Amino acid sequence: MEAAIDLLRQTLTSPWVYLLLFGLTTVDAIFPLVPAEAAVITATVLATGGEPNLALLLVVATLGAAAGDHLSYAVGRGGGSRKLDHSPVDSRRRAGSEWARRAVDRRGGMILVAARYVPGGRTAVTLTMGAVRYPLRSFLLFDLIGSVTWAFYCVLLGVFGGLAFERHPLHGILAGIGLSLVITLGLELIRWLRHHAHRRAARGVDREC
């Protein structure tokens, strides 16, 4: 285990780590299964020991997230969202696309900030915003807010893990990623409860009518 930690530390304290994190946070916008958040948290846990540079990690994570969002927006604007519309009606991709359209209609740019904390939400929302020709200037503004807050969120989780388990970086990494999962699941539970509450309320209105 110690050998694995040493190898991880050597990898993440290399100057190439910044390019790696930029790539992961960019690609994550198109392929949500890429572990960008876990990578930023892991690097930050090790950064509490001095390397890599914490401030630079924050900047790179922000820039990578913003670059990925703009790439996804461009794909949506170029017709990528139409592929989602032609997905099977009961598929998760189709459901995500329809959710994103409703969310953009209701909340506009702020959904771009919130969608980062919904599994797959970032991809669905950025593609949809491109497809509906959401104004690029407004997209840039809200995306910058979302990218900065997300980067701070990941770094804070990593700092928590690094400081709480200063002598055991693996425990710190697991704590940071675990806390991230708990927060995500909690937000998903709240969203699910609100959704079902609205559905029950709508059914009640229909019965009264």
UniProtKB/TrEMBL annotation:
<keyword id="KW-0472">Membrane</keyword>
<protein>
    <submittedName>
        <fullName>DedA protein</fullName>
    </submittedName>
</protein>
<keyword id="KW-0812">Transmembrane</keyword>
<dbReference type="GO" id="GO:0005886">
    <property type="term" value="C:plasma membrane"/>
</dbReference>
<dbReference type="InterPro" id="IPR051311">
    <property type="entry name" value="DedA_domain"/>
</dbReference>
<feature type="domain" description="VTT">
    <location>
        <begin position="35"/>
        <end position="158"/>
    </location>
</feature>
<keyword id="KW-1003">Cell membrane</keyword>
<feature type="transmembrane region" description="Helical">
    <location>
        <begin position="16"/>
        <end position="34"/>
    </location>
</feature>
<feature type="transmembrane region" description="Helical">
    <location>
        <begin position="54"/>
        <end position="75"/>
    </location>
</feature>
<comment type="similarity">
    <text>Belongs to the DedA family.</text>
</comment>
<feature type="transmembrane region" description="Helical">
    <location>
        <begin position="139"/>
        <end position="164"/>
    </location>
</feature>
<dbReference type="InterPro" id="IPR032816">
    <property type="entry name" value="VTT_dom"/>
</dbReference>
<dbReference type="Pfam" id="PF09335">
    <property type="entry name" value="VTT_dom"/>
</dbReference>
<keyword id="KW-1133">Transmembrane helix</keyword>
<feature type="transmembrane region" description="Helical">
    <location>
        <begin position="170"/>
        <end position="190"/>
    </location>
</feature>
